[in-house]
UniProtKB/TrEMBL annotation:
Protein name: Ribosomal RNA small subunit methyltransferase D
Entry keywords, A to Z: Methyltransferase, Transferase
Gene: rsmD
Pfam families, A to Z: Cons_hypoth95
Residues annotated as signal peptide: none
Organism per entry: Sporomusa termitida
PANTHER family per record: METHYLTRANSFERASE
Length: 203
């Protein structure tokens, strides 16, 4: 597993040993970022250049680091596992992207409430939870009404083909779905204009 392109191109990423971590395969990641690079966004904005990234269920930091390498301005990595975050920190250091990154330990779902309460917003959010545990729907339900997602911001979800994903949301608009064998990647964009947001919630 490696960073595919950008300022940290070719850097090998470490993976925690003995943990149930499923990093995004390079071929899936390459396709995902090719799509992001070619999306037409409001006001001519680019998905990656200058993006503020939230990498939920970060694992190794694979997706957030690829975004930083390709021009994102900042990435916050969240995972409940201290071991995973230690590996993420090592990967950040090896890629020499420490000035652009921060790691935070915690439950990725509950973290969204705390981020909203502190007024933080992100233009690109990766959601890559363990497969087939119902977490994708839970996170999307929260993101749909959360001020954490900037207007015109993107939410990119990696999920199993066995997980039925709701594609009709109040504020998140489905823009694309791709299949790679057992894996699906679904892209949503936050509506611009009249949206219903929830800046606070449970702890």
């Amino acid at each position: 597993m490696r960073i595919i392109t950008g300022i940290a191109k070719g850097i090998r990423l470490k993976t925690p040993k003995g943990l149930n971590v499923r990093p995004t395969a390079d071929r899936v990641k390459e396709s995902m970022f090719s799509i992001l690079a070619n999306l037409t966004l409001p006001a001519g904005r680019q998905a990656l250049s200058g993006a503020k990234v939230l990498d939920l269920f970060a694992g190794t930091g694979n997706l957030g680091l690829e975004a930083l390498s390709r021009g994102a301005a900042f990435a916050l990595f969240i995972d409940h596992s201290q071991t995973s975050l230690a590996v993420t920190e090592q990967n950040i250091s090896n890629a020499r992207l420490g000035d652009l990154a921060r790691v935070q330990r915690g439950d990725s779902v509950n973290a969204l409430d705390k981020l909203a309460q502190s007024g933080q917003t992100f233009t690109l959010i990766f959601v890559d939870p363990p497969y087939n545990q119902g977490l994708v729907q839970t996170v999307l339900l929260k993101l749909d009404t959360s001020s954490v997602v900037a207007e015109g911001g993107l939410v990119v979800v990696e999920h199993s083909k066995h997980e039925l994903l709701n594609t009709q949301w109040q504020n998140l608009q489905l823009i694309r779905t791709e299949r790679y064998g057992e894996t699906f990647v679904t892209f949503f964009m936050r509506s611009i204009g009249e949206t219903n947001t929830m800046a606070t919630g449970g702890s």
